[in-house]
Design the sequence.
């Protein structure tokens, strides 16, 4: 029997690929489509490094089968910037030095964008709970939270919080 | 290696005939948050995955005859976003919302949590307390089963090979009713319950309990409905003597194991404490006060 032929939309573009049933969406993104921004930290849904937005919901792409992408719309970290212009969340992560090794960063960027799309004015507590499924071994999270809160303020059109 | 096949049936009949006709082991999939982890670890070796999410009715929430009908595969994030469901059954929604991270919430379902049959499954005590009914379909037709009759042992259910859960039904709410779910974990997020407790009560206008269901999770091979704990509440307000009886009845119902999350003694003691705290929230909600749970 042949592989599954999947037609989907990734970062706004129509994409077709072939995959085996047991290949995850993360496997397909990284190995077949060369979209290596999404990372595999654990392959068990615990770390969030593989976070993508699928049909409006944030999911771990390591816990989605590639074939499930048929007919769906997926946003990966590669689809967050507007061409060469970084998304405010990306810019604020750089400004606040909210990354060290960077392995967790794509997941945090996608999760933060999903947070701010759903809730433009989160409290720090809400932001911390929202990001509880994204693990970072380097930063201790404080810089990440500062970047998130600052990006939210900028996107609301408010002056930078001191 | 045996090839793993995948099917995404578009009707109930198609799904049932795929299951009935499968030559090797088949596994159902809703959100896949348990299934994919078990596939990866090699614990499961199915030949066919039947993805239920394209069967009509499996995703979505509707109100019917004063109650709620929740498609079996509906993700937790959709429950959390449903204001009407949250107002009527805050305990069921908060129990589902405790499962995993926001990412897990984008996929995890009530039916998956129930049919994975973990003794610590968070939504299960809340569903049982609510008197939820699972609508099961299979080759022999359709049957309605109380949720507590689905899991039979860790990892096992009472469903036949050709059966799956179509929807979960929550009954209409009498006036002055409230439910709650609390779990005890050593941290605030992303852990498995040491003890979980679901309580659902109806009070009279004076605040005296007229009906109750109390359910404990993670203290026995399956979630346990504790009639003696309900009996401690019925006919009473939530005073100190009632709470003490509730605590004792909850402890008496525990048949836990000792593992890395807690000893038998610890789990038993915590079960009593969780029953008290959960009941307090359910009573507050039944009296019309919005109370934040966990
Ligand atoms: C990082 C992480 C954290 C988690 N945290 C928690 C937690 O805090 N609390 C908790 O309780 N669980 C937790 N889980 C476990 C899991 O997310 C839940 O059990 C979830 O509700 C499973 O739902 P699902 O739709 O993803 O199930 P699936 O993985 O799709 O299925 C689970 C089982 O149910 C069967 N099944 C699925 N749908 C149906 C149906 N309609 N009819 C019959 N059988 C069906 C499948 O065959 C499988 O055996 C966690 C998992 C991960 C990966
Ligand atoms: S790689 Fe998917 S959550 Fe860790
Ligand atoms: S920057 Fe290294 S894991 Fe987060």
Sequence:
């Amino acid at each position: 029997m042949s592989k599954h032929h999947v037609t989907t939309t990734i970062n706004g573009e129509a994409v077709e690929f072939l995959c085996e049933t047991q290949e995850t969406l993360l496997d397909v993104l990284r190995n077949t489509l060369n979209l290596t921004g999404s990372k595999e930290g654990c392959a068990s849904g615990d770390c969030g490094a593989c976070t993508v937005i699928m049909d409006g919901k944030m999911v771990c792409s390591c816990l989605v089968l590639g074939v499930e992408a048929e007919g769906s719309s997926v946003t990966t970290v590669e689809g967050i910037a507007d061409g060469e212009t970084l998304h405010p969340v990306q810019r604020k992560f750089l400004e606040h030095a909210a990354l060290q090794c960077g392995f967790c960063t794509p997941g945090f960027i996608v999760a933060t964008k999903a947070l701010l799309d759903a809730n433009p004015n989160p409290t720090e507590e809400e932001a911390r709970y929202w990001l509880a499924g994204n693990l970072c071994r380097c930063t201790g999270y404080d810089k990440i939270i500062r970047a998130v809160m600052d990006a939210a303020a900028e996107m609301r059109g408010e002056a930078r919080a001191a | 290696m045996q090839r793993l096949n995948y099917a995404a049936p578009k009707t109930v009949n198609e799904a049932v005939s795929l299951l009935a006709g499968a030559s090797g082991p088949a596994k159902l999939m809703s959100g896949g948050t348990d299934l994919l982890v078990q596939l990866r670890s090699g614990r499961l070796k199915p030949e066919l995955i039947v993805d239920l999410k394209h069967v009509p009715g499996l995703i979505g929430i509707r109100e019917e005859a004063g109650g709620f009908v929740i498609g079996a595969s509906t993700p937790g994030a959709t429950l959390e976003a449903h204001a009407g469901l949250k107002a009527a059954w805050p305990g069921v929604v908060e129990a589902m919302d405790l499962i995993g991270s926001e990412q897990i919430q984008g996929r995890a379902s009530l039916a998956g949590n129930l049919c994975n049959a973990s003794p610590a499954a968070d939504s299960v005590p809340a569903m049982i307390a609510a008197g939820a009914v699972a609508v099961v379909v299979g080759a022999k037709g359709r049957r309605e089963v109380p949720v507590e009759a689905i899991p039979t042992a860790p990892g096992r259910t009472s469903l036949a090979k050709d059966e799956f859960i179509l929807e979960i039904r929550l009954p209409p709410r009498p006036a002055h009713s409230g439910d709650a779910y609390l779990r005890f974990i050593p941290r605030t997020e992303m852990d498995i319950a040491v003890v979980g407790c679901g309580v659902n009560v109806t009070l009279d206008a004076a605040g005296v309990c007229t009906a109750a269901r109390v359910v404990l999770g993670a203290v026995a091979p399956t979630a346990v409905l504790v009639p003696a704990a309900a009996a401690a509440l019925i006919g009473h307000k939530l005073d100190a003597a009632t709470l003490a009886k509730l605590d004792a009845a909850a402890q008496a119902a525990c048949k836990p194991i000792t593992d890395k999350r807690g000893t038998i003694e610890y789990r038993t003691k915590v079960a009593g404490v969780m029953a008290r705290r959960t009941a307090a929230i359910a009573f507050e909600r039944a009296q019309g006060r919005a109370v934040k749970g966990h």
In short: The beta strands of chain A are 4-10, 13-19, 51-54, 57-60, 73-75. Residues 105-118 of chain A form the longest helix (14 residues). Residues 88-155 of chain A form a domain with the DNA polymerase; domain 1 fold (CATH 1.10.150.120). The pocket of FE2/S2 (inorganic) cluster (ligand 2) is lined by residues A 40-43, 45-50, 60, 62 (CB under 6 Å).
